[in-house]
């Protein structure tokens, strides 16, 4: 019988994490199951740094951004004796299993750990919305709201100065934020990692608008977007501590090319970490709450190796392995809808 559950939040922060924590604690408390929070993601589990979570300590969290548990990008498989230390932390604190709230990286580690016998239930959170087997991830809709508001605000200054405004949003390998915010905000071009772009075609779009009497344009670009091979030079990005490209700045290169190819003045706004912060939208609060309750119920039933997923307006369990088998990218059918409004 399950009586003690651990919780951690890993990877980048996003709105809705606290709502999910609150929901797990609330549902577990109803069944007299104790919950414990690990600080700073997998780092807290590796260090066996744990604190009991109660109804009192999780009150007032629903609207708060960030995570009261803290987070990190620590990968237990990059740490000495990582798997053994995690198993030991669960044993020391007499925990029956873990609820892991994370994105693709955190949940990929969770999948490997589950395969090695660590009892885990996952909850998907990432503003990039790139976790497979779920239609939505916690944090995505709030990030889209923030990016859409930026597009709306840039419209007025673009029109006032007859400029091209380039808005760079997050999206390393998947252009969900760019596509949704670009469509919602009425962008005139949306550039995403899934579809290598041709700057000459972008320039033609903008010149066509100008020739039709529309002397301003909005271009939304995901940070991971790349040009079609041989069409534009892009500097090699520096690497982070994990050897991954440190993205950010493609917007400046695109603005430079727009000015060079069209003669139109172009300005850049890089939205950056603003997309991660702030209060979650009502939909993200509800999604996080539903996923938190479902995760608690799966854990209390001893149904490990699963992740909560949003499918057809329902929150259902799916296999962790299915959720992390591949990245969920923007489908061609959705991008074709967005292309209807380019130019």
UniProtKB/TrEMBL annotation:
It is an enzyme of class 2 (transferase). Substrate binds at residues 126-128, 163, 170-172, 223, 267, 273-276. The record marks 105 as: Important for substrate specificity. ATP binds at residues 12, 73-74, 103-106. Its EC number is 2.7.1.11. It comes from the Bacteria. The active site is at 128 (proton acceptor). Pathway: Carbohydrate degradation; glycolysis; D-glyceraldehyde 3-phosphate and glycerone phosphate from D-glucose: step 3/4. Its main location: cytoplasm. One of its GO terms (biological process) is fructose 6-phosphate metabolic process. One of its GO terms (cellular component) is 6-phosphofructokinase complex. The keyword Chaperone does not apply. One of its GO terms (molecular function) is monosaccharide binding. Its cofactor is Mg(2+). Keywords: ATP-binding, Cytoplasm, Glycolysis, Kinase, Magnesium, Metal-binding, Nucleotide-binding, Transferase. Mg(2+) binds at residue 104. The keyword Cytoplasm applies. Residues 4-298 form the Phosphofructokinase domain. Pfam families: PFK (PF00365). Belongs to the phosphofructokinase type A (PFKA) family. Mixed-substrate PFK group III subfamily. Homodimer or homotetramer. Catalyzes the phosphorylation of D-fructose 6-phosphate to fructose 1,6-bisphosphate by ATP, the first committing step of glycolysis. This is ATP-dependent 6-phosphofructokinase. The lineage of its organism: Bacteria, Bacillati, Actinomycetota, Nitriliruptoria, Egicoccales.
């Amino acid at each position: 019988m399950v009586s003690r559950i651990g919780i951690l939040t890993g990877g980048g922060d996003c709105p809705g994490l606290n709502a999910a924590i609150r929901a797990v604690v609330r549902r577990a408390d109803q069944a007299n199951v104790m919950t414990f929070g690990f600080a700073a993601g997998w780092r807290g589990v590796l260090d066996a740094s744990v604190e009991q979570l109660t109804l009192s300590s999780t009150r007032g969290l629903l609207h708060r951004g960030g995570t009261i548990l803290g987070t990190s990008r620590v990968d237990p498989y990059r740490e000495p004796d990582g798997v053994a230390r995690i198993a030991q932390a669960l044993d020391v604190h007499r925990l029956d299993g873990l609820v892991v709230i994370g994105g693709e990286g955190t949940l990929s580690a969770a999948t490997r750990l589950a395969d090695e016998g660590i009892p885990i239930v996952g909850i998907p959170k990432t503003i990039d919305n790139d976790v497979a087997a779920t239609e939505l991830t916690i944090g995505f809709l709030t990030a889209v709201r923030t990016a859409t508001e930026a597009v709306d605000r840039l419209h007025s200054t673009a029109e006032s100065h007859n400029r091209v405004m380039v808005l760079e949003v997050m999206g390393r390998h998947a252009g969900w934020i760019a596509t949704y915010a670009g469509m919602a905000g009425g962008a005139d071009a949306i550039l995403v990692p899934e579809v290598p772009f041709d700057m000459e075609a972008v320039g033609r779009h903008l010149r066509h608008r100008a020739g039709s009497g529309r002397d301003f344009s909005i271009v939304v670009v995901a940070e991971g977007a790349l040009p079609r091979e041989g069409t534009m030079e892009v500097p090699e990005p520096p690497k982070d501590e994990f050897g991954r490209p440190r993205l950010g700045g493609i917007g400046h290169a695109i603005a430079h090319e727009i000015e060079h190819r069209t003669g139109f003045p172009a300005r850049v706004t890089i939205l950056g970490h603003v997309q991660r912060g702030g209060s979650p939208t009502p939909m993200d609060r509800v999604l996080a709450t539903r996923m938190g309750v479902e995760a608690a119920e799966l854990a209390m039933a001893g149904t490990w190796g699963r992740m909560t997923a949003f499918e057809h307006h329902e929150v259902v369990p799916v296999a962790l392995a299915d959720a992390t088998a591949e990245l969920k990218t923007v489908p061609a059918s959705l991008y074709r809808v967005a292309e209807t409004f380019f130019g």
